[in-house]
Design brief:
By secondary structure, the protein is an alpha/beta fold. It has ten helices and 14 strands. Strands 8, 9, 10, 11, 12 and 13 form a six-stranded mixed sheet that branches. It has a five-stranded mixed sheet with strand order 5-1-6-14-7, sandwiched between helices. Strand 9, helix 6 and strand 10 form a beta-alpha-beta unit. Helix 2 packs across helix 9 and helix 8 packs parallel to helix 10. The protein starts with a helix and ends with a helix.
């Protein structure tokens, strides 16, 4: 039995090693990466150091390491990020960006690196509604969102009446600002993916909770300029990161260990 285990382990290690050897070598190329730093636990500023941290930072740094590349990190607001990547100002962008056909018309996506579900984040003491139906039934309840995001469209079409100009949707420049508005009582819910909701709940004990069930699922991908020569290398590195367990380790680090340390 032991010899079989060792043989199986050797085969696995050999497969991982072969995958690593097969990865393209970018010969120290600089990759200009952009994010918003406002999407816990994917990308945010460490409150102690001010440095950008999160799953997306670790993942892109690991991709660059495997491809023999360097990352030049830059910041941008969400509302101009896609256009900036489309125009070639940045090589790769990330901000928990959902893969959809509308965005594919402007930019290219990497393979998905994360799949998540849309949930309703509310204050921990919320008792006035318990799901999207009871929320929608009371015209006084407000939802915070960023224009053009998946969270915005979920609020419009899965919670409210399909009117993108519905005054019950309060728009904010950053995702973090919408969560701050929720905490202060300026809005009553913010829609977000499951992983980010877990991040905010873990980072703010006793402040938030989730109500109702999932309102839909979404795949996250990195965005790149149309026709970028980085797409194939990045996808190859992503595949190797998933295959050898590194992706699982990163998710544990940011969705569980990070929360527990707050």
């Amino acid at each position: 039995m032991k010899s079989k285990f060792i043989a199986a382990a050797a085969i696995l290690l050999g497969t991982v090693s072969a995958q690593a050897q097969a990865l393209p070598d970018l010969a120290g190329r600089a990759i200009v990466a952009v994010t918003e730093n406002a999407y816990v636990p994917l990308n945010f500023a460490d409150p102690k150091t001010g440095q950008g941290v999160g799953l997306e930072y670790d993942l892109v740094n690991e991709i660059a390491k495997r491809l023999n590349a360097k990352v030049d990190w830059q910041l941008s607001s969400w509302d101009v990020m896609i256009q900036a990547v489309r125009d070639g100002q940045f090589d790769i962008g990330m901000d928990g960006i959902t893969i959809n056909d509308e965005r594919k018309a402007q930019i290219d996506f990497s393979d998905p690196y994360l799949t998540s579900e849309q949930l309703m984040l509310v204050r921990a003491d919320e008792t006035r509604f318990t799901d999207n139906v009871s929320f929608a039934a009371n015209a006084d309840f407000l939802v915070g969102a960023q224009a053009g995001t998946t969270n915005f469209y979920t609020a419009v079409y899965s919670v409210l009446d399909g009117d993108e100009a519905n005054p019950r949707i309060k728009l904010f420049d950053t995702f973090g600002a919408s969560v701050s508005a929720l905490q202060s009582g300026d809005v009553d819910t913010v829609l977000m993916d499951k992983t980010s909701a877990n991040g905010y709940i873990g980072a703010n004990p006793g402040a938030f909770k989730v109500v109702g069930g999932p309102l839909g699922s979404e795949d996250f991908g990195f965005i790149l300029t149309k026709g970028s020569d980085l797409i194939a290398p990045i996808n190859a590195a992503l595949a190797s990161i998933k295959a050898d367990g590194t992706m699982d380790a990163l998710q544990k680090k940011w969705f569980y260990d990070h929360n527990a340390a707050q």
